[in-house]
Amino acid sequence: MAIGTRERIVDATAECFRRQGYAGTGLKQIAAEADAAFGSLYHFFPGGKEELGAEVIRWSGRMYMQLFIDIALEEPDVVAAVGRFFTDAARDVEASGFADACPIATVALEVSSTSEPLREACADVFASWLTSATEYFAGAGIERAQARRLALCMLSLLEGAFIFSRAMRTTEPVLVAGEAAATAVKEALAG
Amino acid sequence: MAIGTRERIVDATAECFRRQGYAGTGLKQIAAEADAAFGSLYHFFPGGKEELGAEVIRWSGRMYMQLFIDIALEEPDVVAAVGRFFTDAARDVEASGFADACPIATVALEVSSTSEPLREACADVFASWLTSATEYFAGAGIERAQARRLALCMLSLLEGAFIFSRAMRTTEPVLVAGEAAATAVKEALAG
């Protein structure tokens, strides 16, 4: 039961962060959406909103990477996996009314210059994504330095496209970015 | 004098939005940083923070587009202009201690699901950037549908790379994204 409450708090906070960011999310709203007593937030996160925020960033980062790993295991090759990561993302962002995209990006932009513990949590997540994507591309036979550049471009395309898709309420940016990312990987494999 | 105060308010608000976003920016902080009386905010923006926010988004969008236009006029060709837009951006974000990047992106992610007037302001700015970049590429001889895809990818690469650069405190993502964008334009011109 105690574990269930902590998980509900983390899950509800992640949802709030995706939709409205860090500064716009209050602990009262989190408690209400998690169906948790307000005091339980401080029980599980004695450091308050900043400690909860750092935990949610790291947890969301792991969840989001798992999404990509699941797709990579299902698809026959790297190009197909990259393509599907973007088409799935486009489908999901549209299904949520253009509310749910990256669980980290909004907070990352808000906190990069205002909270060092939260910036570090975002930086750690991004570094883990970059390392994993680089290893994934390198494992498919792409030279390591190029694999890192590809990983950076794929992730930048995705995050940037999410910004345009959410504001403009269209999947076009994510779909176009996905085609570009898949083409870049295909060319790197052929070269 | 009245014009000066309004301009200082808009300029200070844009700076706060870049560094800490919309929800994290209070009217008291804006008044202090603009060296303006608190009441003058409501004099110039009777609709309060949301009206000021929408004005700042549109003003910042025009300023940021002008940066690109200035570079495009100085550089000898499209590929050089795209490359320099990113190298200048990398230099500027580093010079600001990784605080100042896109003036719109943080707010866009925060408000896309919470304020329809602010979301519309962001969508209008993004649409104007996309249209201008598409026209710029088409004017260089790239077929229009491809020019739009290139514009979407260039802007997504830039916005996504800013997220990683600010959180990770390195210009690498912006520089790598810039090389990819310039290469994509070069290939489109050659094809």
Tell me what you see in this structure:
- The structure is a homodimer of 191-residue chains.
- Chain A is an all-alpha fold and 191 residues long.
- Chain A has one domain (51-190): Orthogonal Bundle (Tetracycline Repressor, domain 2), CATH 1.10.357.10.
- Chain A is built from nine helices and no strands.
- Chain A has helices at 2-20, 27-33, 38-44, 48-74, 78-95, 105-111, 116-139, 144-168, 172-190.
- The longest helix of chain A has 27 residues, at 48-74.
- The interface between A and B is large, with 47 and 47 residues.
Strand tally of chain A:
0
Give helix and strand order of chain A, one letter per element, not per position: HHHHHHHHH
Say what the CATH topology of chain A is: Tetracycline Repressor, domain 2
- Identify the overall geometry of chain A: elongated
* Major β-sheet profile of chain A: none
Strand content of chain A: under 5%
Let me know the CATH homologous superfamily of chain A.
Tetracycline Repressor, domain 2
Number of separate helices of chain A: 9
Helix percentage of chain A: over 70%
Mean pLDDT of chain A: 95
Query: Do you know the CATH architecture of chain A?
Result: Orthogonal Bundle
Distance N terminus to C terminus of chain A?
54 Å
Total domain count of chain A: 1
Task: Say what oligomer this is.
Answer: homodimer
CATH class of chain A: Mainly Alpha
- How does the helix and strand content of chain A classify structurally? mainly alpha
